[in-house]
Amino acid sequence: MELSGEICKVYTAGYSFHRKPFYMNEPEGVKSYLFRFQTEGNCLLRYKGGMDEVEVGDLHLYAPDEPYELKIDYTPNAAGLPMVESGDYHIFFGGEWADTWWNRTERPAKIKIPLSDNIVDLLRQISMEKRRIDDPYPEILSYYMKILCLSIDRYLSEQPSSGPKTYLAYQIKNYIEENASTAFKLDDVAMYVGISVSRAVHLFKEAFDTTIMQYALDVRLNMAQERIVFSPMPLEEVAESSGFANYTYFHRVFRSRFGMSPKEFRISKREHIT
Fold first, then answer.
1. What letter does residue 27 receive in the DSSP assignment?
2. How far is Cα 170 from Cα 167, in angstroms, rounded to an integer?
3. Where do transmembrane segments lie in this chain (predicted)?
C-alpha cells in the first residue's frame, strides 16, 4: 500500500517532566493516534489490558479509541528512598496519511528505542516545531511527522534477531538508561547482568558499536538537553540531576558535543520556538 501525499496533522506535541504524582485516565480511548516515549524515570501505563511498568526507552503506540491510562507515583531511587521522576515526549496526530501509514502493516504496541537514536531527535524537533507561536510553514511539521513514522518502521525492520548475547547487551543498555542519572561503575553493570566486566564491555560494544561509558554519557547529555530546553531548572541543577559529578565537567563535555555552552544552548533553543 503506497502512502498518499496528504498532510499528516499534528494536534499536540510536547515534553512533560513530572516530580509530583500524576494520574490520567481516558477509558473511552484517545481521539487520535498517540506516540508516547519515556526518556526519564518510570511510570505505569495501560498496555494489553493491564498496567505496564514503563522504563526509559519505551515508545508506546496508540490508535484512536484505544483506552489510555497513565499513573506516575513514588518509586524507590538508588538509595531506596521514595521519589517521583518521569519524563516523556508525547505526540497526538492524525489525518488521512496517518490512517494509511497505520493500516499498512502490523506493529508492536511497545517498542524499545535507544536514547541516542535519531527517532529521539525527531521527537524533540516535532515538539519544538509545535511550540512555535508564529509559523508560516506548517507543512514542515507534517514532513517531520511523516519522517518519524517511517523511521519507526525502518527501525523495526533493522532489529537483529534475538539471542543470548543480544539479550544480555540489551539488559546492559536498560541498566545504563535507568541509572544514568546516578554514578555507577562498570563493576555495577557487570554485576547486574551476572557476567565479568570484560565480557560485558565486549558484548555491549559488539551489539551497539559504542562503549558502555560512552553510551552513559550520551544518555546523560540527552537528559540534559530536555531539561535545559523544557524545564526551568538552573543549569547547575540540570547537570547534577542528569548524572554529572560537577558543572565544570558538564560544561566541557556539553560544549564539546554541541559546539556551545549549556547557557547558549538554552537561549538558542528557546528563541527558536518563540
1. T
2. 5
3. none
CA distance 107 to 123: 19
Q: What is the C-alpha separation between 168 and 160, in angstroms, rounded?
A: 14
263-272 pLDDT, tens digit each? 999 998 877 6
Burial class (CB in 10 A: 0-12, 13-18, 19+), 173: buried
Rg of the chain, C-alpha, whole Å: 19
Alpha carbon distance 22, 58 (integer Å): 19
SS3 51: strand
Predicted structure pTM score: 0.70
C-alpha–C-alpha distance, residues 4 and 93, integer Å: 16
> Which H or E run includes 58?
strand 58-62
Going by C-alpha positions, the residue among 3, 272, 1 that lies closest to residue 140 is: 272
CA distance 152 to 101: 11
Q: Which residue blocks in 71-162 are alpha helix, DSSP H?
A: 96-103, 118-131, 139-157
Give 120's contacts (C-beta < 8 A, 6+ positions apart).
37, 39, 89, 113, 222
Look at residues 152, 165, 160, 161 and name the one whose alpha carbon lies nearest to residue 117: 152
